[in-house]
Amino acid sequence: MSVDISDFDLAEAGAVLAAESARFASFGWMRGTSGNLSVVLARDPLRLAVTASGHDKGELTARDVVLVDGAGAAVAGGRPSAEAELHARVAALTGAGAVVHVHTVASVAMGHRSPEGIVFRDVEMLKGIGQPAHDVEVTLPVIANSQDMTVLGDRLEAAREPRMPAVVVAGHGLYVWGQSPRQARHHTEVVEWLLELELARR
């Protein structure tokens, strides 16, 4: 089955991803050319717009985006992020409409300190990921890093906590997802806040 994604659709998605990237870069979460974002443009077959590789994420334009398939391979545009395959895997696994990958100090530090997973409870900000603020424990999974995106995707799938729209990749950073770029942004900001709180507590 084929799917028709127009240049206009891709440019529109690129503009959204450029704006989101600039926001995260302003927080210091996408330093240099690190990190990547994606948004789902079609489901059957799966097609995502992913930020292009090697660009300063604070300076992206609507053209700095690549259309990829369900395996993360480029369909149109330039060279996608090396992690495009994992973005596609997360979208297929979770039904997410957008995926965020940022390199934050708190996620790397807490991944080292709590390789078994990071447990949150009795924190009002849990409401930001759709969980009760009290009397419920929610674990943010931590998985070992790999340069093989298939291996990394398998680890993410095995460790995923359905109540937590995120996972920490040890020594690497944070993957977060949501139904839309806006929700993925909110989830990213909430999960990062929780990580910073735990880091400060310890």
Automatic annotation (TrEMBL):
InterPro entries, from UniProt?
Answer: Aldolase_II/adducin_N, Aldolase_II/adducin_N_sf, MethylthioRu-1-P_deHdtase_MtnB
Which cofactor(s) are needed, names only? Zn(2+)
UniProt entry keywords in alphabetical sequence? Amino-acid biosynthesis, Lyase, Metal-binding, Methionine biosynthesis, Zinc
SUPFAM superfamilies to which the protein is assigned, alphabetical: AraD/HMP-PK domain-like
- GO molecular function annotations of the record: methylthioribulose 1-phosphate dehydratase activity
Q: What is its EC number?
A: 4.2.1.109
Per UniProt, where does Zn(2+) bind?
101, 103
Pathway listed: Amino-acid biosynthesis; L-methionine biosynthesis via salvage pathway; L-methionine from S-methyl-5-thio-alpha-D-ribose 1-phosphate: step 2/6
Pfam families from the UniProt entry: Aldolase_II (PF00596)
| Cofactor, how bound (note) | Binds 1 zinc ion per subunit.
The UniProt entry, under NCBIfam families, shows: salvage_mtnB
* HAMAP family, alphabetized: Salvage_MtnB
Indicate what this protein is called per its UniProt record.
Answer: Methylthioribulose-1-phosphate dehydratase
Q: Which organism is it from?
A: Streptomyces hintoniae
